[in-house]
Specification:
Helix content is 42%, strand content 2%. The protein is mainly α. The N and C termini lie far apart (85 Å). The structure holds heme C (2 copies).
Amino acid sequence: MRKIKPYFVLICLMTLLFSCKESTFHEGKFFAGGVYATADQLNDGKSVYMDYCVSCHGFNGDGNGVSGKGLFPPPRNFKLGIYKFGHVVAGELPHDDTLYKIIKHGLNGTAMLPWDMSKEQVYNVIQYIKTFAPKAWEGKDKKLGKKLVVGKDPYGASHKSFAIEKGKEVYHVVAQCQSCHRAYVSHEELNKISLKINDEAIEEFDEEMYKLKLQEGEHGYKVMPPDFTMHELRSVGTMKEEKGLKDPERIAINDIYMRLLAGAGGAAMPSWKDVIEDNEIWALAYYVRYLQGFKKDQAKRKAFINSIEKNK
Ligand code: HEC
Ligand code: HEC
């Protein structure tokens, strides 16, 4: 009997592989918000995914790709259908144009880099990703979250210092962001702000107030709140994909405002919409942006941290 040539086996395997690839989707699908993707779009989305995303996000979308091992944060597990950086209240499904911005811009400080692909490729891969979480996404009856919008900034550049001061008060006393993140004022200053806002002195200072507190999340791992003077903010800069916005300062403040409005889905960071006033959220955005300024200058950061923690 003639021996089968190895290259013949290879050709057979390749043919099988390609026919598999082409025949994955035979019909289109309806996703949340009435979005319809044709079979061709889904098949194209799959091939984009196999080329660029599978190494981290994995064959079945669970985030366990070969290059995803040991990454923190780990690649998103698409099977859960939970997204951190939508422009919707945390926990709701994001709109395609937001996912588009995230994929084009990447997530700062993580392995999720910017992707330079055509609009069509990005759009198609977004549809494909949804097929990993059919319970969350598939069906005409599924709803997207209500899209949040960045309204009018009540401060603007001319009232920046005022906004930062107010943001500091909101951060430490009104919203108490240091219950998860850390505090950025001394005991003395915290007491002063508390007297001003609540007419109450602080009887006992929380020993953990200068520490970051690891939080339980729904993504299958614990989530760390950032220290704004040290860490990158992941979703800041994505709005540069929005038409007409050029000034990086404006983009950053708008993005921080949006993140505070929306929270981070499944990652303990709550939505502050209707919890505190809109002008307070804007003030916080200015304050967080101000704190980010220390990131550029380690000596300045050290001096600042020493000055606030002096009577710890
Ligand atoms: C080198 C690894 C890597 C590759 C390749 C990669 N990603 Fe990611 N991706 C990540 C990581 C890490 C995160 C999680 C970041 C976080 O939790 O803050 C992420 C998160 C995401 C998210 C979640 C956004 C949200 O709001 O929760 C989407 C969507 C996404 N990636 C899409 C893609 C697509 C599409 C591709 C291919 C074009 C891709 N990724 C390629 C590492 C990667
Ligand atoms: C219950 C805990 C909790 C509280 C309260 C909280 N945060 Fe967060 N926050 C987190 C966690 C955890 C993350 C990191 C999420 C991730 O990226 O995985 C985060 C992330 C953020 C980010 C970064 C978003 C990005 O794009 O990377 C900002 C900005 C932020 N928080 C601001 C605030 C402010 C301001 C307050 C108070 C108004 C606040 N947080 C209150 C837990 C909290």
